[in-house]
Write a structure and sequence with these properties.
Layout: H1 3-8, H2 12-46, E1 52-55, E2 60-66, E3 70-75, E4 78-83, E5 87-90
Antiparallel strand pairs: 1-2, 1-5, 2-3, 3-4
């Protein structure tokens, strides 16, 4: 059964607006979200040892160890193990020069 044979029948013309709505929904809602998720995942994968980060809970630290699903970060009181998904932002000189200046 091809598109042409579906559109030939009585109900075929009723399907065209529905197909157009689905296409617009995909273009404006789903596709940009997929691109955003892919970009965020690539950013997390690019983080490495020595990068300064802020977690979603507000903890600032420097990455000391990178594993498949988590980081070990160094904070003032010791070390913490956090999930990669808990990273909120990266504090690099390119993005936040004042935040990475040494004391």
């Amino acid at each position: 059964m091809t598109i042409y044979t579906i559109l030939e029948g009585q109900g075929g013309m009723d399907m065209i607006p529905m197909l157009l709505i689905m296409a617009v929904f995909f273009l404006f809602m789903i596709w940009p979200q997929m691109r955003k998720q892919k970009k965020a995942k690539a950013h997390l994968e690019s983080l490495g040892k020595g990068d300064k980060i802020v977690t979603s809970g507000g903890i600032h630290g420097k990455i000391t160890t990178v594993a498949d699903t988590h980081f070990v970060i160094e904070v003032e009181e010791g070390k913490l193990r956090i999930e990669k998904s808990a990273v909120s932002m990266e504090l690099t000189q390119a993005h936040y020069p004042a935040a990475t200046e040494s004391k």
